[in-house]
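Lab meeting, item 3. Inverse folding demo.
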């Protein structure tokens, strides 16, 4: 092979590598699509619950897999993730406790970050949207009393996560918080003393604004990424309170996150506890009236004002209920939400609704009823 040909091949190779690096730096293009349109595209979603957000001092091994499987999940596989898409789910919410594996200065372990990225890539590769968040992180319980240090931790986490995902396209949405904005020592939402209520809301508003500022300033596609903002404890009535403020976003690409487990005596518990008697049935006129009242609140306060809404969790405790009752509740909540423009995302853990061994929904009738809402 002559020298001129060799030089030509080397030049072509170098140009190709340069182009690849350039494309990787820029990332896939962000579409000209509003957050309201994007949220509508998601359809019906589901959570990869009790997996990457599993935590506990008792967990042995201290490896990525030891955390991933600590709360009963098998090791996540690509086939498992593809199964969600095959069943018709349009968005996978991936809860993550980033502090599970951290080094000095709250540096996220690279193996943990790599594993999260692998799961995100599988979901995006299957055609689903992904919602990625901070979830169940005890780091933030002390925000009211150790505000400076706690906010530094929060900033360090989101600075790293935003940087790691800055080149992903708009099928990835980042979520500021889960339900951690509950600080009973500052303001007990179940008490009668509202002395510090304004301070509690101001604190969550500050956290959400910090999140937006970090992501927007992190470069790449994050400048225009669609973001999900935690409502106050993600509770509907507390999130429509006048003290709750959506953060300022120069891109106007934010949706609000609410959860639905109402009534808690039916949706959360399957046996009697100190604060309530477990219900095995749901569906009275009063139950439907409560559901519609709350969904109307969301529509009036957010949707009608141009603020998109994702119901990032809704679910039901299943052990004391018939399949028919489970279907009635879940489909009724999903229908009430989707009919008002709210994207519903099922809360699910290992082998309750979705079987992580066969990679399909356990109840095909429930699946059919949920997917019918997309049509």
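The presenter then showed the designed sequence:
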């Amino acid at each position: 092979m002559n020298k001129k040909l060799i030089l030509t091949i080397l030049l072509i190779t170098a140009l190709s590598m340069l182009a690849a690096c350039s494309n990787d730096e820029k990332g896939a293009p962000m579409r000209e699509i509003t957050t309201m349109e994007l949220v509508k595209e998601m359809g019906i979603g589901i959570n990869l619950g009790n997996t990457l957000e599993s935590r506990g001092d008792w967990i042995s091994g201290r490896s990525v897999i030891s955390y991933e499987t600590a709360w009963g999940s098998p090791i996540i596989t690509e086939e498992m993730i593809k199964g969600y898409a095959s069943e018709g789910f349009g968005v996978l919410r991936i809860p993550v406790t980033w502090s599970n594996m951290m080094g000095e200065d709250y540096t996220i372990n690279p193996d943990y970050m790599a594993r999260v990225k692998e799961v995100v890539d599988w979901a995006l590769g299957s055609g689903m949207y992904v919602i990625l968040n901070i979830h169940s992180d005890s780091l933030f319980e002390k925000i009211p009393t150790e505000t400076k240090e706690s906010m530094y931790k929060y900033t360090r986490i989101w600075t790293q996560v935003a940087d790691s995902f800055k080149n992903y396209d708009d099928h990835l949405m980042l979520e500021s918080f889960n339900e951690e904005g509950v600080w009973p020592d500052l303001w007990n939402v179940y008490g009668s003393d509202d002395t510090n209520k304004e301070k509690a809301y101001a604190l969550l508003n500050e956290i959400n604004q910090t999140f937006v500022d970090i992501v927007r300033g992190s470069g790449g596609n994050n400048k225009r990424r669609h973001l999900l903002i935690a409502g106050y404890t993600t509770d509907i009535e507390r999130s429509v309170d006048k003290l709750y403020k959506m953060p300022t976003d120069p891109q106007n690409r934010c949706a609000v996150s609410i959860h639905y487990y109402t009534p808690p005596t039916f949706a959360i518990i399957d046996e009697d506890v100190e604060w309530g008697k477990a219900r095995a049935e749901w569906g009275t006129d009063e139950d439907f009236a409560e559901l519609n009242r709350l969904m109307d609140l969301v529509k009036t306060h957010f949707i009608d004002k141009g603020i998109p809404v994702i119901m990032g969790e809704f679910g039901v405790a299943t052990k004391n209920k018939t399949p028919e009752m489970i279907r009635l509740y879940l489909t009724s909540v999903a229908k009430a939400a989707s009919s008002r423009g709210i994207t519903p995302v099922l809360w699910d853990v290992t082998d309750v609704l979705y079987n992580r061994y066969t990679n399909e929904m356990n109840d095909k009738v429930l699946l059919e009823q949920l997917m019918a809402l997309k049509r």
